[in-house]
Write a structure and sequence with these properties.
heterodimer, A: alpha+beta, Alpha-Beta Plaits, two-stranded antiparallel sheet, 5 helices, 9 strands, B: mainly alpha, 2 domains
Chain lengths: 187, 266
């Protein structure tokens, strides 16, 4: 398998602090309301406990990205060396087709530039042998960068409850599901 | 609210519908030259398409980049839609010139234009059927767009057709409205039995006052009027246009995106 960089989200470690989202904002200074990375609490129907579990999601850099397929001006490309899906904003005409088409809501509309934009896996930092801003910032190492071609962690899934399942796209992301807390009750 | 896309889709489908109805009305005509009375109707088709294409540019963040939007024909339905619509537009102009000159091949051009228009409907429908909208990730947009073209095409065609063609147009409109009513009732019901996101779309439709208003006014009143008068009154196409615009607004605002449900069970 070719090298495919991916995010690995360990929901057992994630404390929902939003540091990853803030690090991304701090790195790229998106306008107000534009978030490339967001932290979603898992609802009570999935994780019915007093403490919450969270999903931190940005772009999944899919094997067959919908954004790339639907873009009429070929503003997206997938890097051969690591599988990162990059959006070339200078080519974008702001048609919104990628925003409408991505089932994960990764591309966002920038109202100031009138163009789409999304998480780029900090490819400039990758090329400088550094981790993406969000991965570097995570205080609990809940968000990590992995290579799917040699990723073999136990208890991990590609589609966790609360994450849309689109097998045709084959999103490059892995999750470690949250552990249900052990409750001991006296009778 | 994607108003520019509402205008683009409705007007382009009126244009296609009028072209199809003109071809259907005269399909049995054996002579090669179209009557000159069709010239005005064909001009209206061209003007509606021109306004539609202009409206589509307002949807873009950078309209001057629109010529590059045909670069991705290999996989982008949007690129294909632009190409097909441009071909339809060119054929409309060529056919208008042929009609104006009374050319012997004007009928052939009219029929070819209508066929290309139908292809345009299908391609246009595919643009709005991405995986992110489970309720629409199928042939539903094509059906909706086809219904708009046939309803509004037959209704507005009555303004231009002679008395001998009015019963045909009334029949086509009646059947289109019946099919439209059935589909608009059945589809949200089907959505309610789908996954969570589809259910949310079905609930949004059934819970919308606009949805029921449209069903009653456009389809209910439209069918009642056609049943009573047995012809298309001059005010009916305007009412149907209002109904189709409401339906298209709902298409762009009430259908739920899959990302809305992240963190919840699908």
């Amino acid at each position: 398998m070719k090298k495919q960089i991916a995010f690995f989200v360990d929901t057992r470690r994630c404390i929902g602090c939003f540091t990853c989202a803030m690090a991304c904002k701090n790195q790229y200074h998106q306008p107000s309301g534009v978030k490339w990375r967001d932290v979603h609490p898992m609802s009570e129907e999935i994780y019915p406990h007093r403490e919450c579990a969270h999903l931190t999601l940005a772009c999944n850099h899919c094997e067959k990205p919908t954004c790339l397929e639907v873009c009429p001006v070929v503003a997206y490309y997938k890097r051969d060396e690591d599988g990162v899906v990059v959006h070339e904003q200078e080519k974008c005409i702001g048609c919104g087709n990628c925003i409408r088409s991505c089932p994960y809501g990764a591309p966002k509309y920038n109202p100031a530039l009138k163009k789409a934009e999304k998480c780029s896996f900090c490819w400039q930092r990758l090329d400088a042998d550094r981790e993406p801003a969000c991965v570097q910032a995570c205080p609990t190492r809940a968000l990590q960068m992995v290579d799917l071609s040699n990723f073999d962690e136990p208890d991990t899934v590609q589609y966790i409850a609360g994450f849309p399942r689109f097998t045709k796209l084959n999103p490059s992301i892995r999750f470690r599901p949250p552990r249900q807390p052990l409750e001991i009750r006296r009778k | 609210m994607e108003l520019s896309l509402v205008i683009f889709t409705v007007l382009s489908q009126i244009s296609i519908g009028l072209a199809v109805m003109l071809a259907v009305r005269q399909w049995a005509v054996s002579e090669g030259t179209a009557p000159s009375s069709f010239r005005f109707e064909w001009i209206v088709i061209g003007v509606a398409l021109a306004i539609a294409l202009a409206a589509s540019l307002f949807h873009l963040g950078h309209p001057f980049g629109s010529p590059r939007a045909v670069l991705h024909l290999g996989s982008s339905w949007l690129s294909r839609e632009i190409v097909v619509m441009q071909i339809f537009g060119i054929l409309v102009v060529v056919a208008l010139v042929a009609l104006w000159k009374g050319s012997a091949n004007s009928w052939t051009l009219v029929k070819i234009t209508a066929l290309v228009g139908l292809v345009g409907l299908a391609v246009s429908g595919m643009v709005y059927a991405p995986p992110s909208f489970p309720a629409l990730n199928n042939g539903v947009p094509i059906i909706f767009y086809g219904l708009t073209a046939f309803i509004l095409g037959s209704a507005f065609s009555s303004y231009f057709a002679g008395e001998d063609k009015q019963p045909l147009l009334t029949q086509i409109l009646t059947i289109s409205l019946i099919v439209g009513l059935v589909i608009n009732l059945i589809l949200p019901s089907i959505w309610l039995s789908g996954g969570r996101v589809m259910q949310m779309t079905g609930a949004a439709y059934f819970g919308s006052a606009l949805f029921w208003l449209r069903l009653v006014v456009e389809f209910g009143l439209g069918l009642a009027v056609l049943g009573v008068f047995r012809k298309i009154p001059i005010w009916l196409p305007v009412l149907l246009l209002a109904g189709e615009i409401v339906g298209r607004i709902m298409f762009f605002t009430h259908v739920v995106h899959s990302a809305v449900n992240i963190g919840n069970l699908y």
